[in-house]
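ok so i was messing around last nite and threw this chain in just to see what happens. nothing serious, just curious
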Amino acid sequence: MKAFLLAAGKGSRISKNIPNIPKCTLDVGGQPLIARTVEMLLQNDIEVTVIVGYRYQEIIRVLEGLPVHIVHNPFYDVTNSIGSLWMAENQGLFSQEDTIVANGDVYWSQEILDFMKTQKDEDLYLLGDSDRVRDGDYFFGTENGILRRYGKELTLPERSCEYVGIAWLSAVFVPVFLGRLNQMIDDQCHGKWWEDAIYSLSAEHAVPVKDIAGMFWAEVDFIEDYRRILDYVGEQTGIKTNGSITTFTD
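result:
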């Protein structure tokens, strides 16, 4: 199994509240967020590729010693995440294996990874959280568990869940996904998200959304997200934080 973590972006929404660092290097319980995710995946025998861009040296430094592939997107401020993932594909790092694609600023747990392993009968799926339909960032509308609507601007009645930022691609579906990814790059769709390759396929291929309601996760878009992670980690470890921002910069 393979996993690709997207960590090239600047994180402009939270940048005013944190030092000038990649948000995926923020401290979560004594280690950088991205390192924690990579270690979890490696412990599950998953081959990991991390795609970096903004202040990439700092991400490489916090991952030092971990057996991961690093792909550098020097055009991170011009392309969106679809361009970053294409660079990994262009370097031959994809293969016809079960594959997880995830945003690198998402805190997620072994519980969620274990849940994903139980859903491997699907060609692909996205993760959503039906507990978060009021206060969220990007929403899905589903019918019988199948993606029908998506976007930041969905009205409350149109929402079924918040998108988590993680997708599963089965080995047989990886070539289909990469075919659409390459087509969109050929069409100069550099400003799209990597998920747009999946959304564009939803008219011709059912895209299931798996609900992880009740499992903790958080995508670090805003300072409130980060503090929610710190609170959760404190509850799990018994080590309370004061909600302050800590980093691993020299």
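not much to say yet. Residues 223-237 form the longest helix (15 residues).
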